[in-house]
Known about the structure:
Distance between the termini: 62 Å
Structural class: alpha/beta
CATH topology of the domain at 72-96 and 200-377: Rossmann fold
CATH architecture of the domain at 72-96 and 200-377: 3-Layer(aba) Sandwich
Radius of gyration: 21 Å
Order of helices and strands: EEEHEHEHEHEHEHEHEHEHHEHHEHH
Number of helices: 14
Bound molecules: ligand AN7
Amino acid sequence: xxxxxxxxxxxxxxxxxxxxxxxxxxxxxxxxxxxxxxxxxxxxxxxxxxxxxxxxxxxxxxxxxxxxxxxxxxxxxxxxxxxxxxxxxxxxxxxxxxxxxxxxxxxxxxxxxxxxxxxxxxxxxxxxxxxxxxxxxxxxxxxxxxxxxxxxxxxxxxxxxxxxxxxxxxxxxxxxxxxxxxxxxxxxxxxxxxxxxxxxxxxxxxxxxxxxxxxxxxxxxxxxxxxxxxxxxxxxxxxxxxxxxxxxxxxxxxxxxxxxxxxxxxxxxxxxxxxxxxxxxxxxxxxxxxxxxxxxxxxxxxxxxxxxxxxxxxxxxxxxxxxxxxxxxxxxxxxxxxxxxxxxxxxxxxxxxxxxxxxxxxxxxxxxxxxxxxxxxxxxxxxxxxxxxxxxxxxxxxxxx
Length: 401
Ligand code: AN7
């Protein structure tokens, strides 16, 4: 089991501190995986169910909080809102720290501990930091998290602090935070657990495997919000591996959605360019995906092109409308970045890029409780003050239109 450069095929050991090949290429784990349905049939749904298909080094003991095994919810009213026949929501907000990041982090921190690292770090728009902080605490490691000052949701900041991470707020955006901590990692000050680390993406493969195991039939399309483009890349790797094992009757179309103010990947795909032009000043209400230089873009580009998928953008207004629709029509409260997947699906159906008869899975990546501000800011007049008097309450309710 080795790390391979996806550009030049040079190999590195699994426990390398390098996050890029000498040629600048991204790395990925390759191994001669051996498993089939019988391997995991009797195990509960969750990341470690698929352990034969995950990285392994001698002596490793999973650092776990019960990640994965999240619900796949058929959502008929939301399907109607999006304009399609069949929609399922894979709600990653049900993970231990409230986001899909826990899948990659349980694997990443497990490996870091087994390699003997004592300090782990990441740059983050919030969720990676919260997840790393929790798993580092669980493992007894020190976490260093670098976040863009004033631009991460309050719940995520509280999580990082309460789990005991060293929280550094950088006067800049996520991309600058990642570059900064990347240099520290290269010096050997800490082990980097951003999704540029291929071990993180290995854990994230389990998301789409669970979807396949939860649905009777392979979905036509799986829709992801895209920030740094790690998650959609991990999905592609997962599907290709499953196909190689003869366990994928057909390939779902991987579809990405970016916020309009932070959409360098969508723009690259729309223009047909083969390299990414960064967005120097990314801006969106969906702070989780406020990212101007998605590091995994080469993998994500292959994910979309090789599965016949697509990438689109949505406005902040469309994101907040989708968030509210999902919460009020289905009882699922997700953070704005997550709602981008549903807003994007709706848009793609309206412009007829997605057929209304498709069976679609939308990935909602993070829990809405992490970022209540986004809802409350746009909810003026939602709470009405009343006297503790039944007549006043009745009159108020009768006046409710
Ligand atoms: C809720 O936490 O990048 O495309 O630093 O928190 O794999 O980056 C978060 C990303 C989608 C985008 N939804 O996933 C971080 C960070 C939510 C997120 C994404 C993020 P990628």
